[in-house]
Amino acid sequence: MKKRNLLTIPLILLLFLQGCKDDVATTKTDHDASKPIVLTSFYPTEGGARDKILLDGENFGSDASKIKVYFNNAKASVVSSSGERIYAIVPRLPGENPRISVVIGEDSVVYNDHFVYHTQAQVSTVTGNGETAFKAGTLSEAQVYGKYLELDAEGNIFMSWRDGGSFGVARINEQQNTVTPLYQVASAPYPYSNGLTVDRATGVLTVSHESVIEVFFSFDPREGWYPRQRNAKFSAADYNSIVPADRYANFVSYCPYDGYLYTRFRDGKVAKIHPETYEASIVCQGPYGSQYGQAINPAKPWLLYITLHSNANPTEFRQGISVLDLRDPSKGFKRLNAPGGSAFRDGPLEEALFNYPKDIKFDNNGNMFVADYDNHCIRMVSADNIVTTVAGQPGTSGYKDGGPIESQFYRPWGIAVNEQGDIYIADWGNARIRKLVIE
Description:
By secondary structure, the chain is mainly beta.
């Protein structure tokens, strides 16, 4: 038998691979900025989040890192490009009738046809069994009657409650399968909590004490979420300017735009609070009224949104969503949806109606989610201000998990959104915490 020189095999293989590498290198193309980007077609023409899509055209270049694809304002993930075909992944919740645009350098072009986006939603129950007396334990054993929710970056769900025979704040963790009280008392006022907020960079949870003007409570994960009382330091003039009968601060929100906490009293005054020194000042006089929701839009973190009750004055703010620009709060609040509550109407935000909207929260793309209390459903205000119903049956109460058509709620109150865009709902009338995943 003829002996084979084994050293020649790796050498031949190396030369072959190098030749292949050279061939690949020669097929790479660059986008020519002196020529236009040409768009021809895309496939499929409809689908949902995380679906694959092929975008055909010319002069894309083969460097995927230099190509951006948008469905309306939602950015898609670009996997690869051959120069004439882009392979991308459909983004989540791009808005109504999305148009696909391709951006390379200074050039931006849009396909003529719309992509037909199909929203898919699924509701499940996280914890609670319908009993209103709070009980800690595993998710299957626990009993909850939560009103307001908030989440940190680690997946902890924080819940405040003030019904069912006790008051408190609890931590819910799906991965750890636990519901644990951070504090629990049989009666008020320690603390008489409503709205919660988390600085997701530090994980610090802040809770409003709605009956004492200067009192808040903070829970630091580095201290095992041990409750600490924090007292806001108003000047005498600011303190005395707040109407004594209306010193209810239902909410507090951390604002990443300037790093301050913001709260609002029932007489309409908005206060700005330093999160460390707790020095506080009044920055705005807004409409009077009881408040049931408050949120900062992370996509535009200088915007503070609130929902007001049917006792709001001026009446134009009743049962509506209003916004305050914190860059110049002296301009006051502006109502966003149509006047007239106790009704249901989807569509453009300026025409939409709600029925006692309670809590509101945003995902990282600027979509707002509304717990529409007396319509028994969850509504979404997209980043381009279109209102749709994403879960529940408007006007029909009940308890049922499942898709957007069959799912049912009974007076949902609190709401929170995690980093992945999953929505958690305090389904108050059903004494349960529910989870809504939208794609």
